[in-house]
Amino acid sequence: MKILIVEDDLILAGELALLCRKWGYEAEYIKNFQDITAEFEKRRPDLVLMDINLPYYDGFYWCGQIRERSDVPVLFLSSRDQNADKVMAMASGGDDYVEKPFDTELLLVKIRSMLRRAYEYRPGTGNYREYITDKMYYEKGMVYCQNCQTELTRSESKIMEALLERRGQVVSREKLMMILWKTDEFVTDASLTVLVSRLRAKLRELCREDVDGSGVIETKKGIGYYIS
Questions:
Q1: In this structure, are residues 67 and 73 in contact, taking their beta carbons and an 8 Å threshold?
Q2: For a tag on the chain, would you pick the N or C end, based on fewer CB atoms within 10 A?
Q3: C-alpha distances in angstroms, 189 versus 31, 71, 87, 97, 218?
């Protein structure tokens, strides 16, 4: 597994690369921060360690650019400790967040967990197909509509599976957050709203000509969500 380190403190970046190699991973860090997406495309990592405070554009921006190209796991490393920054990290497409200074053992656990979920874990309990509407169905982390398809992130898949398993019933926001917490996802009430909005946007884009994707996941105000 290859890890790409995006950290403008090159001494720390080098230390992180050495740690990752010690743990058995291939690791590289970048020195050109003008076009991080080009570096990402060239190196094709399996996981990205992303700082927030970077030259030119911040880590939130670059994570969003990576998300347009790939679902590779992105782990934010930052000295920022405000909840707003953690929510922003999730909103930009990040998968987890570790505050600096961090314990190296904790970082290793996070990296292993994220790689396991991304490349060993498969959403669902089997090779099943679950219809969302008469034209749209979910299968193994993917949503299909007519001849189009879109891939869901791990968090989006967990939300979709929870709603489909309880079709017609309202799944509370607290229940959804507990489901995501069990897979080591950092989820707040605000970031859950962002995740559901991103999921709705994907459904709307996928089936814009046939199905109102934004209306597939209904809201019970102040309580939770459901699929009818």
A1: no
A2: C
A3: 36, 23, 9, 16, 17
Per CATH, the number for 130-226 is: 1.10.10.10
CA atoms of 13 and 31, how far apart (whole Å): 10
* Other beta carbons less than 10 A from residue 2's beta carbon: 15
pLDDT tens sequence across 117-133: 776 544 444 445 677 88
- Reading the block at residue 101, the tokens are 């200074």
The ranges of the chain annotated as CATH 1.10.10.10 are 130-226
Contact at 8 Å (CB) between 183 and 154? yes
Per-residue 3-state assignment (H helix, E strand, C coil) for 110-168: HHHHHHHHHHCCCCCCCCCCEECCCCEEEECCEEEECCEEEECCHHHHHHHHHHHHCCC
Average pLDDT (207-219) is 65
Express each pLDDT in 101-157 by its tens digit.
Answer: 888 888 988 898 888 777 654 444 444 567 788 778 888 788 888 778 888 888 898
In the chain, pLDDT over 70 holds for what percent of residues?
89
